Amino acid sequence: MNSKTTDNNLPTKARTAELLDSIMLDRRRFLMGSAALTAGATLGAWVPEARAEIGGNLEIMAWEGYTMEKETEEWRKQHNLTVRAAIMASQDDVTAKIVGDNAVRLDAAEYSNGYNAIYNELKVLTPLDTSKVPNYTKEDIYPPFYQGDMWHWDETQWAIPWCWGLDTIVINPELAGTEVKSYTDLLKPELKGKVAFLDNPLTLWPQIAKVTGYGDKFPNMTKDELTDCMEKLKPYRDQTKVFASSNGDVISLFASGEIAACFCVWSAVPLETAKQNVKTVAIYPTEGGAVWADAWFIPKNAENIDSAYAYINQALDPQVQASVSKTAVCSTVSKKAVPLMDETTKALFDYANFDEQFKHIRIYGQPPRTSDQYATYDDWLQVWADFRQGF
To answer: Whose CB has fewer CB within 10 Å in the chain, the N or C terminal residue?
Structure first.
């Protein structure tokens, strides 16, 4: 393997911490690099029409490029609201803020799918009153994101999903030398030594399960099923040139012509390679893609709760959704946002056939942290490390 491979010599527990730290970092590295929103909307006089309970300082934590600085500027001025955003480098940055004896105030923060069970176990989530988020309605939100079980359980809404994206096969058509419509096409002789894997458990592991026939069981697979899953994946390893550690590595590999395909990667990669005059294409395979989704929640240590609700509601405003989908290269949860998008942003997903396209998509969690019945997260880490080492 070349120098872009990840370090597989770390002990399993250390790998657990490392991967939890990096699970969702890399897709954000290619945003516009907006700075933390520290100044907020302090300009202008108080607007009398504004609701008195909205205003003051709002402390949030979000991924870079997801703070809605541009999109909420006028709204913040109207409500004399200062939003102070800490930028996440990983989901654990949020966890460190809201858990334990040193927990600090956050009025709103994001979590990615796969963390709902962890945060529920840690008891850091506030039950949400959806009447205070009027943009979150069954009529306006695409079905997978309205009261989906990643955000709604025990007959309670705990978080509001607001943006999502798809990881899927990406190819360089010129270098591939063959048509790719499904994962089995990656096994064609023309692609021998031209394929990359991205080391991102959040979306990669569900795809592995689907490709090997265990999609209906993931993330609750037995150890025997996990062993069989990895055995069936070995033909793909034989096609592989490199196990890349980040989206950035994948983009660089495409740009340099070292690979012709990536097994499962951010579907916006073609937008990045185009900046380097290299054409790549995201393929929606017959097996379906893998979804990541981010949601806003109100931590237990929140103080400016009315403003937090109002801010989350703004995140679902159709115009805000359309703008964020463009600047953050993601997809919308709002049906009303699609007509407001430019054609390039709209083309990130086939919204006209949303229900049909989503039939092959599940928003997966992660394997259990502990279990006597199923393969755990650490079990998956170990077999994945062994797979990459060639065992």
So the answer is: C
